[in-house]
Specification:
60s Ribosomal Protein L30, Chain: A; single chain; 40% helix; ten-stranded mixed β-sheet; Rossmann fold; alpha/beta
């Protein structure tokens, strides 16, 4: 699946920047174009991968280029007043030649929660392909103006629209996120959510967790989107763009999970060994069938039970897609079938869509799981009654 990406606000732009970097690790890639939109000029300048011509500052009259300081109402007002500027910002996306667009935002902050729904709406007017939102929830114990700011700046592009801004008092993180989840659930074709508490070490600051959140999301989404583009070696089964689109079309919210098990790939060490593998080819390791099945099933079980991007009841999902990424010798048909059956049993989702991505250079057997139509999550319930994951309003 070939996608375009729009990052909105500090957290969303940082995630878009990370997706551009992740795309460089895939051959062929999955990302066609990336755009960044923010009310903080300094945060835009700190982006490393999004092209400078594709970085757009909004609301300079209202904020003097310093961001909305957690004020979602101000951000929404800016989005209404500067809709032509939003339109111009997304015009660089080649909407006629991509399969979908991702709108990424940190939902606890002002710009992300206030502007991202407007971006989704603008894209909905100009493209016939799906528009998916990727939302980063605020942490359960996260508060503005604390020491997390220093960690966030040290870890990468600033997330000054989120709780790490030291310039003001505590932000209304939960209410911002609740309103954004409701708006994005209604406006986007699907909403993928991530909770930083999944990756935050006990007692550690939230700033230190954000880079891990970005790495996890870009890795998981990147493997899902890139799976259908793989051509050499030829996959046993391709998870193509239409199957991903059908998986995403379940409504509610979506989560992504992943797990890996280290395996031997039979590649030779050193520069000379690498050249021999490249030009002469490598036979790959001699893998016992029983071990291949065991690795596949154990890794699949972990993928749906550990570190989902949003803690939830996996049995509440209505659709699922799975990607198996590993050296070819480890992609046993029996192992993949058993792993798929295990995920069906864990989730209760029938006829799971799946594909494999044989990669001779991989050093692990990795399973990536996309669960969509999720409607039972204690984490969402904690945000309050404004959240409507099933779009009943």
């Amino acid at each position: 699946m070939e996608i375009g990406v729009v990052g909105v606000g500090g957290g969303g732009c940082a995630l878009a920047d990370a997706l551009v970097a992740a795309d460089a690790d895939h051959d062929p890639g999955f990302l066609v174009s990336a755009v960044a939109v923010d009310t903080d000029a300094a945060a835009l300048e700190e982006l490393a991968r999004v092209d400078e011509d594709d970085r757009h500052l909004l609301g300079a009259v209202h904020t003097d280029g310093r961001g909305t300081e957690g004020d979602a109402a101000l951000a929404a007002e800016i989005a209404r007043e500067e809709r032509p500027e939003l339109q111009a910002a997304v015009d660089s996306l080649p909407v006629g030649s991509i399969d979908a667009t991702l709108v990424c935002a940190a939902l606890g902050g002002g710009t992300g929660s206030g502007v991202a729904p407007a971006v989704v709406d603008v894209l909905g007017q100009v493209t016939a392909t799906p528009v998916y939102a990727v939302g980063l929830l605020p942490g359960v114990a996260e508060a503005g103006g604390d020491a997390d700011a220093a960690d966030a700046v040290a870890d990468g592009p600033k997330r000054t629209d989120a709780a790490t801004d030291p310039r003001g008092p505590d932000r209304p993180l939960a209410s911002n996120a609740a309103g954004a989840v409701r708006a994005l659930s209604a406006g986007a074709d699907d909403l993928v959510l991530a909770d930083p508490d999944v990756w935050r070490a006990s007692g550690a600051s939230y700033g230190a967790a954000w880079s891990r959140v970005d790495a996890a999301l870009t890795g998981r989404l990147g493997r899902a989107f890139a799976a259908g583009e793989a051509t050499d070696p030829v996959p046993e089964r391709v998870l193509d763009a239409s199957e991903l689109t059908n998986t995403f079309g379940a409504g509610g919210v979506s989560v992504v999970g992943s797990a890996s098990t280290g395996v031997e790939n039979g590649r030779r060490d050193g520069v000379v060994g690498g050249l021999l593998d490249r030009f002469a080819g490598g036979a790959g390791p001699d893998v016992d069938e029983g071990e291949a099945v065991s690795v596949a099933t154990n890794t699949a079980r972990k993928a749906v039970t550990h570190r989902l991007s949003l803690p939830c009841d996996v049995e509440s999902a209505s659709r699922a897609a799975v990607v198996f990424h590993a050296p070819p010798a480890w992609l046993s048909r029996r192992g993949l079938e058993r792993a798929r059956s295990l995920i069906e049993a864990e989730t209760g989702v029938p006829e799971i869509r799946w594909g494999d991505h044989p990669d001779p250079t991989a050093e692990a057997f990795r399973v990536t799981v996309l669960l969509t139509g999720v409607d039972d999550s204690d984490r969402l319930a904690e945000l309050g009654g404004a959240v409507d994951p099933t779009r009943l309003d």
